[in-house]
Amino acid sequence: MKKIMVTGALGQIGSELIEKLRSIYGEDNVLATDIRKLEYTKGPFEVLDVTDGQRMYDLAKDFGADTMMHLAALLSATAERNPLLAWNLNMGGLMNALEVSRELNMQFFTPSSIGAFGPSTPKKDTPQDTLQRPTTMYGVNKVAGELLCDYYFNRFGVDTRGVRFPGLISYVTPPGGGTTDYAVEIFYEAIEQGKYTSYIQEGTYMDMMYMPDALQAIVDLMEADSSKLVHRNAFNITAMSFEPSQLAAEIKKHLPHFTMGYEVDPVRQAIADSWPNSLNIEAAQKEWNFKTEYDLARMTADMLEKLKIKLHKKAIS
Ligand code: VAH
């Protein structure tokens, strides 16, 4: 990886991945793209609608990109509200990114998700290779995406790689449209309101990961020895599995007056219920030495510390 093009660069993963990649490979070697431009963006940036394959090709070629990190997609809850738009954007954008990577001989990364599993998938210690019958449009997109990436590797020799991300928790960019977003919103409201009403019911376990671990996993996988990758495009990875009341209890250790309530959103609860509780990550550990630094306690402490600074700055600005 030397010249990297990132789509969806202003999203929850993208906004932090750009910084991480630039700190490793150099600011001028990472081209950020997204459908909109912020008034101020550091480093190379281009507006790109990922359904415009020709513009994606032109940008990659002009930049001399040797790596494509395709992040632009609609997340699970948004996709359920607009399944046709989700299919066109998630699958059309992915096909364009794979085609550009094939034509320009680029290494390729795109994330799958625990959303690629469905209610008939074993929920505990979910195997790397198992039944995948998701019941959401997002899940259908993710399973189709995993198969497409395998196809581009086997048929065209594109060095495609990917992971099944759990819910990601970060303080930099507020999340948008996910089912696991309660695990991010709770921190903002705990600091600002001292309370939070969860749309996911107590007892609903989901896999989660702190963003620093997610970003390191992307870099480690992309730098791994290709000959050792068996699963290549859809590695199960996770750092922790918890349900809302466990996260609330951890926050209360830092904010003793924090209170948690529940007002279940049936759409996002149904999505969460269809996903696994905890993934088996042995394949990622064995094939590219996947590891994490943050558990629930360490993530909670860091989120609260960093978010207090961020929200204080906003309050006084
Ligand atoms: C979502 N945060 O909730 C994303 C992710 C595993 C969850 O794919 O849609």
UniProtKB/TrEMBL annotation:
UniProt cross-references to Gene3D superfamilies, sorted A to Z: NAD(P)-binding Rossmann-like Domain (3.40.50.720)
Domain of life (superkingdom): Bacteria
Gene Ontology MF, one: L-threonine 3-dehydrogenase activity
InterPro entries in the cross-refs: Epimerase_deHydtase, NAD(P)-bd_dom_sf, NAD(P)_epim/dehydratase
Record-annotated NAD-dependent epimerase/dehydratase domain positions: 4-237
Species for this entry: Lysinibacillus macroides
Pfam families, sorted: Epimerase
Family stated for the protein in its record: Belongs to the NAD(P)-dependent epimerase/dehydratase family.
Record-level GO BP terms: L-threonine catabolic process
UniProt-recorded name of the protein: UDP-glucose 4-epimerase
